[in-house]
Design goal:
3-stranded antiparallel beta sheet; 138 residues; 3-stranded mixed beta sheet
Length: 138
């Protein structure tokens, strides 16, 4: 396991009630109700939060790769993330798909950016070898 030499940021939340509870960040910028997937009500769920975090981070990694490759990214760069909660036997598991849109870029350039991003994105690193991940370039 690689050790961190310098902490850039620490996200802190306080969660109560599990999937039917609430979560609030230490700075108050995140204050959300939680609900199980498919349940009625206004809350979100951990899978949606994970998808949002990973897709945002992945775009940041694409931007980093684009800067190194001196490629201008389209303004409408997007990542649609899907995180499945499933079961095998009695074990709960996650599976994810990242669908990347880099309209207007040559396919080989876009693919090089996606490949580089998947190597540098901390979420990609954390999940590598732990859950099924499919990355598709639209």
């Amino acid at each position: 396991m690689t050790q961190i030499d310098k902490v850039l940021y620490t996200g802190r939340t306080h969660t109560t009630g599990g999937r039917s509870g609430a979560s609030r960040s230490s700075d108050g910028r995140l204050d959300i109700a939680l609900s199980p997937p498919g349940a009625s009500g206004g809350g979100t769920n951990p899978e949606q939060l994970f998808a949002a975090g990973w897709s945002a981070c992945f775009i940041g990694a694409i931007e980093l790769a684009a800067g190194k490759m001196k490629v201008a990214l389209p303004a409408d760069t997007a990542v649609d993330a899907e995180v499945d909660l499933g079961m095998t036997g009695d074990a709960y598991l996650l599976r994810a798909r990242l669908n990347v849109s880099l309209p207007g870029l040559a396919r080989d350039v876009a693919q090089a950016l996606v490949d580089a991003a998947h190597q540098t994105c901390p979420y990609s690193k954390a999940t590598r070898g732990n859950i099924g991940v499919t990355i598709t370039l639209a």
